Amino acid sequence: MGYSVGQVARFAGITVRTLHHYDEIGLLRPSERTAAGYRRYSEPDLDRLQQVLFYRELGFSLEEIAVILDEPGSDPVTHLRRQHELLRRRIGRLEAMAAAVQHAMEARKMGISLTPEERFEMFGDFDPAQFAEEAEERWGGTDAFEQTRRRTARYTRDDWRAITAEAGEVLQAFAAAFAEGAPADGERAMDAAERHRAHITRWFYDCTYEIHKGLGETYVADQRFAVNYERVAEGLSRWIRDAIHANAARHA
Amino acid sequence: MGYSVGQVARFAGITVRTLHHYDEIGLLRPSERTAAGYRRYSEPDLDRLQQVLFYRELGFSLEEIAVILDEPGSDPVTHLRRQHELLRRRIGRLEAMAAAVQHAMEARKMGISLTPEERFEMFGDFDPAQFAEEAEERWGGTDAFEQTRRRTARYTRDDWRAITAEAGEVLQAFAAAFAEGAPADGERAMDAAERHRAHITRWFYDCTYEIHKGLGETYVADQRFAVNYERVAEGLSRWIRDAIHANAARHA
DNA sequence: GTTGACCCTCACGTAACGAGAGGCCGCAGG
DNA sequence: CCTGCGGCCTCTCGTTACGTGAGGGTCAAC
Prior knowledge:
The structure is a homodimer.
Chain A: H1 5-12, H2 16-24, E1 32-33, E2 39-40, H3 43-57, H4 62-70, H5 76-110, H6 116-124, H7 128-139, H8 143-152, H9 157-179, H10 187-203, H11 209-221, H12 223-232, H13 236-251
Antiparallel strand pairs in A: 1-2
Chain A binds a DNA duplex through helix 2.
GO molecular function (chains A, B): DNA binding; DNA-binding transcription factor activity
Domain HTH merR-type (chains A, B): 1-71
Keywords (chains A, B): Activator, DNA-binding, Transcription, Transcription regulation
């Protein structure tokens, strides 16, 4: 039973080589092989392939997809919900582009020429908008918020990649120390906290120790943040908050 | 005057390296260089860059983009119209995907499992829509049109790749024979014509010799087809028509 | 018992950049 | 005047996600 590479490739509209590749990198290993070494794909394998293709279509790298799909506690329904959300966003983006094109056509008819900034504004948006709205609700009007808005406005796609990568490293440092049982008021923990503060200061706003402590509290109190940390390890959010507090005390 | 690489990169949300790359491959050469060899981008350069980014966003390869932008007789308004159309299509596609996701969620709730074909139907569509509309205007209602619609509906991305590749080979055969001075009523020309007919029959509809002759006429009469052949070699469209006629006569 | 369609594993090629290395250019400040 | 520093230059090598054969087994069918 099960399907051969060729069959699967035909269903999914991809090449056999692509399936070989996904097998190679461990993204989608067929759950069985025949005695002759032929790949056999089961129904769950097809399910997974579909997920892979979906996220690929939306521009995720294969590595990112692997992370998403292997996230612990990610049931199918969660994925479907997330996919729907992603599609909505992407559609919104394209609609904005369509509007921009319309705008350009009208401008051209009237003989108006656009400034460089205007010309590219449709490509300019990116990640910031994602949490910018929510950020405004929480911190709108504050100094830090204004600073963040001003600075992030100039960031390129590349900057955002760097930022998320760096954020990942910082989280990694927290997680590693926590996993190895380091105390929250120890050197490792405090150093990681300091790195976290530096990251924010570098890319977003002047994160004082006072503000940092407030953030630490938020990470525990706000479900949306807490979940992200708890998913990595149980108790991590609280541990991070304590590390931040210890670090602030150290620098007081 | 003009803008430096860094400035342009910031406007457009791309990296300097990308601009270097586009310069290297000839996709976007800055219209000027300073005495020191610095790239200077003019307003028209920015216009072109914007087009490039637009088509890139929609998944075109840089080579395809070069072809699109350097097409003779492509004024800005044509591009804008085409872009709007492409966006509309893409949005439609995503909406279909969103619907499919919704469908999958409902199916899951009811505990129904999908067949492999159903599972991947959302990835099934592809190129056909591109020229399907125009085809409908010209040949709507005819037998060949219906047949084409039914058959192409089942094609996967892979099939389309194969089809375009094969079409390329056929054109190549025509062009080579023509370039070497083969007569339009000679064996080589007629064989190429026969190959062309077989290609259409294989992938689209039963192309009789009668229909084929009509197509030959179209290739000369319709600017949109003629341009494609004349771009390869001057006089090629007429030569192909003659080869098709000779081939039809041979098989009569 | 031999085709023909399909499968396997290397292994190298390609597109579209990313990431430096090593070295000019140009101007604000001492 | 020169010196630092950000920006620009040209290589060159690395990476992702496969494409494209080469060389060779497998298996159902005629």
